[in-house]
Amino acid sequence: MSLAEAAQAVVAQFEYTDDDVNRGVKEFLRQMDEGLSKDGTSLSQIPTYVTAVPNGTEKGLYMAVDLGGTNFRVCSVKLNGDSTFNITSAKVPVPKELMIAETAEELFAFLALQIKAFLEKHHGDHFEQHIRRRMTMSAPNGFRDENVFRMGFTFSFPVQQMGINKGTLIRWTKGFDIPDAIGKDVCALLQTEIDKLHLPVRVAALVNDTVGTLMAHSYGAPESSGASLGAIFGTGTNGAYLEKLSNIKKTLVGEYDTSTGDMVVNTEWGSFDNQLNVLPVTPWDVALDQQSVNPGLQMYEKRVSGMFLGEILRLAVIDLMKNPDISFFRDDNSGTNDLRSTTDIAETSPIYKAWAVDSTILSIAAGDHTPGLVLLRKGLDDSLQIHAAAYEDARAFQAIAGAIGQRAARLAAVAIAAVVIQTGKLANPDEMIDVGVDGSLVEHYPYFRTMIQEALSKVEGIGSEGAKRIRIGLAEDGSGVGAALIALVAAGMEKHAKNAAAKAAAAVAAASEVSEKVTPAE
Ligand code: BGC
Q1: CA–centroid distance for 471 within its chain
Q2: Which of 136, 280, 485, 512 is 20 to 30 A from 156 (CA-CA)?
């Protein structure tokens, strides 16, 4: 068997046909429905207590922080009310030891310190003024309520939400593992650390990055009736959409506004089909899952998102390298290598180390159309320390990487198709269906969106006409602007609750006045 044939046999295992896509969509719709009716299902379908998407006229200055993967980001966002915004932000990497810390406090204390540093640097006046005022004010925490920044907290892990700013962590994903935090309210954890530093900040809203993406895309596209879906295809993957309240059959414990008849639902689709009813399974998917920190969970995410594609590729490539019948990244003399030297793989190459292959090499492979695959061979050299790879080897590598990327894009189409069908918007032939997407994979993997569109056109109930109406656009800054927008919604809810409480207190006072007046007459 030639190398090309052996590589083709690997490629074939990643094939995900139109029939597979359609089976996937049907099962996705079934699991969505199941998730709306009870807790503890594979697709969590978490109600977010956000009951409307913005229309671009929202205004104000809000803070937003974002913890979702490798970095922590702090920003302040000025919403201008005309679909535009100004954002100031700072980003720091989350130290590895805090991702797997003993206690949640260690991580959250670090986050609060970053918020303090940001306020000092970018809102120094406001900060100083309020620290001074704090000494003289009698308000709780020493701040006048109107001077406290409302902050949206983008926390991109599965959380059971109990209200717009309250939610307990269900499980960690994407390599985080702090068991102490499971079951705790993550807003309270952050607020406690913020209060220890006496910062004028209130965690007003808890936001999944997909919900932020949905909100930001709606704010920025006022000509449409709002985005139908916000989705992330980055380190992890997930989606959020607007669902009819009447379809949410499970109990909603928190308070929310019923007037729109809708609520944003965070699907947590990374865990779609953990039971593997329809997801494709290759030997490399099995091996990856077994060596992961959460075997049996996030099974869809493990086939689709950036954190995993590099590792699937690594496992498949290593297997092929071990095949004694073929020569892959091995040549005995420079005559077999068009670079006139023999291939050499450094002992320290990421190809020999679990989780060490970054998925950017898949993007490089997919984007290389040069005749000699010079870009990919340079990429193999630079990032995998595979020096002087032969053209045939690079070609085989490209074919396998391409198959993994294409399967991921077609699986991504399964989730998008199911959500679009669920929203019912396909029924109106004149309506465009906006999908806001964000994440390194969808931004940088060449033709990822094109491959999704192609697969969408093959879905029964969508077809090529329907697919043309599904407009997949990059969402601008979901975790910043989206979180700010939800903080704004939350501030509105606070005001509403305060007015209602004031009205209730006035009614009680009036009633007691009446009874006082009545009593003497009796
Ligand atoms: C998390 C989601 C998140 C997604 C994208 C997943 O691992 O479970 O909550 O939205 O990653 O960041």
Answers
A1: 19
A2: 280
Ligand 1 centroid – CA 25 distance (Å): 20
Model pLDDT, residue 222? 60
Q: Which of 26-40, 44-58, 118-132, 306-320 has the lowest mean pLDDT?
A: 118-132
For the range 357-361, what are the long-range contacts, defined as Cβ-Cβ under 8 Å and sequence gap of 24 or more?
A: 357/310, 357/311, 357/313, 357/314, 357/384, 358/310, 358/383, 359/306, 359/307, 359/308, 359/309, 359/310, 359/313, 359/440, 359/441, 360/310, 360/444, 361/310, 361/313, 361/401
How far, in Å, from the CA of 52 to the mean position of ligand 1? Answer: 21
Comparing CA positions, the residue from 74, 48, 61 lying closest to residue 190 is 74
User: What is the torsional sign of CA 352, 354, 356, 357?
Assistant: positive
Cα–Cα distances (Å) from 50 to 59, 241, 438, 493, in that order, read: 18, 11, 20, 10
- Rounded to whole angstroms, the Cα distance separating 299 from 411 reads 12
User: Which of 73, 171, 314, 407 is the catalytic position?
Assistant: 171
Q: Give the phi and the psi of residue 302 in degrees, each rounded to 5.
A: -70, -10
209 counts as catalytic? yes
**Which residue did the predictor score with more confidence, 358 or 69?**
358
Query: Among this protein's residues, is 66 annotated catalytic?
Result: no
Q: Compute the Cα dihedral for 370, 372, 373, 374 and give only its sign.
A: negative
Radius of gyration of the chain (CA): 26
What are the residues facing 438 on neighbouring strands? 232
Query: Among residues 193, 194, 155, which one has the least CA distance to residue 48?
Result: 155
Q: In the predicted model, is pLDDT for residue 432 greater than 80? A: yes
Contact indicator for 159, 168 with CB cutoff of 8 Å: yes
Cβ neighbour number for residue 225 with a 10 Å cutoff: 16
156 counts as catalytic: yes
Q: Which residues line ligand 1 (CB under 6 A)?
A: 68, 156-158, 173-174, 208-210, 232, 234, 236-238, 268, 270, 301
Distance from C-alpha of 367 to C-alpha of 403, rounded to nearest angstrom: 13
